Amino acid sequence: MKKIIIIGAGANAIEIIEYVHHINNSNETYEIIGLLDDSIENYEKNIAIDFDYPYLGKIEQAVIEKDFNYVLAIANVSVRRTIIDNYLEKGAVFSNIIHPMAHISPSAKIGTGNLIYATAIVGPKVVVGNFNLLNAGICLGHHTVLGNNNVLCPKTTLSGYNKVGDNNLFGSNVSSFPGLQVGSSSIISSGIILDKNVSDGSTIFYRYKEKVFILPKE
Description:
Layout: E1 2-7, H1 11-26, E2 30-36, H2 40-48, E3 69-72, H3 77-89, E4 97-98, E5 103-104, E6 109-110, E7 115-116, E8 121-122, E9 127-128, E10 133-134, E11 139-140, E12 145-146, E13 151-152, E14 157-158, E15 163-164, E16 169-170, E17 175-176, E18 181-182, E19 187-188, E20 193-194, E21 203-204
Parallel strand pairs: 1-2, 1-3, 4-7, 5-8, 6-9, 7-10, 8-11, 9-12, 10-13, 11-14, 12-15, 13-16, 15-18, 16-19, 17-20, 19-21
């Protein structure tokens, strides 16, 4: 059984804990040793009330345990990048957590440190790098290449032959035309339909209506 330490004690950590429980129901794979978070209040609010896994201290102050694997359960892209660099430099080893209800094509290649949620689809010949968070209902079309440390929110769909760099955030319900390229360190807001390439450091969003009218009940 693989012993894991979860980095982060927020809502994302709750999801990961429950996913580990689902995995272990069919095959005892992981043993959760405890959680790291910079705020013990965060741990007490989100974790301690429902689970008995111990609080192991602050993230940056942790001594890397060579016998354990680490799981990064934080969704903020820039915070993730800092932790990844810091922990890899200290020699930490990271695990993939893949929900049993995710579909991973046999021809897909998956790196390390990835979180793949329930109902996610990773299609044929897809290449997924390291430390990506693929949320529920996402779809990576055939031959898509996804770099490192990208966060894809629920129901994002990247069509075939897309190529994505590193450290990007895709909001919910983003979709793309086939064959597009997305650079690195960009933010694509929810609901966007990508029909052209995205350069590094871009922010893609809709200009919403300035006024919202609410009709009172009769």
